[in-house]
Amino acid sequence: MRLRSPSHYEYATLTDLCMRSKAVWGYPDDILEEFRAELTIAEEDVESSIVIVADDIRGIAGVAQVALDGDTAWLEKLFVEPTRLGEGTGQMMYVWACRVAQDSGARDLVIDCDPDAMKFYLRMGAERDGEAESPSISGRMLPRLVHRLHPMRSR
């Protein structure tokens, strides 16, 4: 498995992966469509944040996006191809996100996550830190998690 930057011609494929991954939680089609803008990978995302693709000989396994804002980093996306769940791709991308955030000087990685994904993030070391409103559905509250990053040591 390797991590790499996405090619511009893959944005639609990566968006479809995000939609399929979100559908794993059993959302009806009309609600999934409400999430589409939030799950879209576009040129602006790649220009304003850090986006990686996890792939191997079998193809694309996942996508993750981290946005940086001073000493805070935001995990905007972390989605695994549903047929690849349980292979460790999510863990690998999450560790990558923490390292990228830490290397960029962030003290915290903030995750406004799907309620069904919360157990994964808690298992990876994030802690519950309140709620945030969904960017897709007004009034829908999401768990806000924070992964406290250890400061980089001087060498």
TrEMBL record:
It comes from the Bacteria. PROSITE patterns: GNAT. One of its GO terms (molecular function) is acyltransferase activity, transferring groups other than amino-acyl groups. InterPro entries: Acyl_CoA_acyltransferase, Bact_Acetyltransf, GNAT_dom. Residues 1-146 form the N-acetyltransferase domain. Pfam families: Acetyltransf_1. Keywords: Acyltransferase, Transferase. PANTHER family: AMINOALKYLPHOSPHONATE N-ACETYLTRANSFERASE-RELATED, AMINOALKYLPHOSPHONATE N-ACETYLTRANSFERASE-RELATED-RELATED. This is N-acetyltransferase domain-containing protein. It comes from Hyphomonas chukchiensis.
